[in-house]
Amino acid sequence: MAQKNTLRYVILGLLSKEPMAGYDIKKAFEGEIGDFWYSNHSQIYPELNRMEQEGLISGHEAIVGSKLTKKKYTITDSGNTVFGEWLNESLNALPPTRDEFAMKVYFMDSADQPLLVILFEEEIARHEEKLTYLESRWQMLFGTTNPKERYFGHSLILERAIRREKDHLTWLHEAYNRLPGKK
């Protein structure tokens, strides 16, 4: 089965909320969208060009500040139709994960390997930092409003990310505490 280009649907989804420049879309991938879907600017800008040629989006020059021009994109009726069709499609099979930490731990044959302690400490620090970031995003976006009133789907996915990090940290701490060489 051919792999579908999910990047275009993510871009259409972003543009269904508001017109955005390529830079704004790239920044969205560096923020919360990046927690669930990864893309870099070398993929985003060519995709924007293809989507514009296909009539899914339209670009127009906008002046930002006193003289800087940015190309802002808006979703077209055709783009809204394609986006709606994608939302209604069944999901594909779960993709394989790429977890470097898990692979390194997998190849450690003994709990006595000192590198295991270092790996777990680094992984715990990374996930604590991620949890702090996600909880701050929750406070910023939903701390004073009821998520059901606005951006309900966004709040569900952010809640999922927070729970994922908490659950993962629980497991990391439990496994770490079983290591004989921990500090």
Keywords for this structure?
183 residues; 7 helices; mainly alpha; 59% helix; three-stranded antiparallel beta sheet; elongated
Can you describe what's shown?
It is a single chain. This protein is mainly alpha-helical and 183 residues long. 59% of the residues lie in helices and 10% in strands. It has seven helices and three strands. Strands 1-3-2 form a three-stranded antiparallel β-sheet. Helix 2 packs across helix 3 (41-53). The longest helix has 29 residues, at 114-142. The radius of gyration is 21 Å and the shape is elongated. It starts with 5 loop residues before the first helix and ends in a 6-residue tail after the last helix. The mean pLDDT is 88.
Strand order of the largest sheet: 1-3-2
Low-confidence stretches: none
Order of helices and strands: HEHHEEHHHH
The termini sit apart by 49 Å
Given the C-alpha coordinates, what overall shape results?
elongated
Structural class: mainly alpha
What composes the largest sheet?
3 strands, antiparallel
Assembly classification: single chain
Computed over alpha carbons, the radius of gyration is: 21 Å
- The average pLDDT is 88
Put simply, the count of helices is 7
Strand content: 5-15%
Number of strand segments: 3
Percent helix among the residues? 55-70%
Offer a quick outline of the entry.
The chain is mainly alpha-helical and 183 residues long. Helices cover 59% and strands 10% of the residues.
Layout of SSEs?
Blueprint: H1 6-17, E1 20-21, H2 22-30, H3 41-53, E2 57-64, E3 68-75, H4 77-88, H5 100-106, H6 114-142, H7 152-177
Antiparallel strand pairs: 1-3, 2-3
Helix pairs in contact: 1-4, 2-3, 6-7
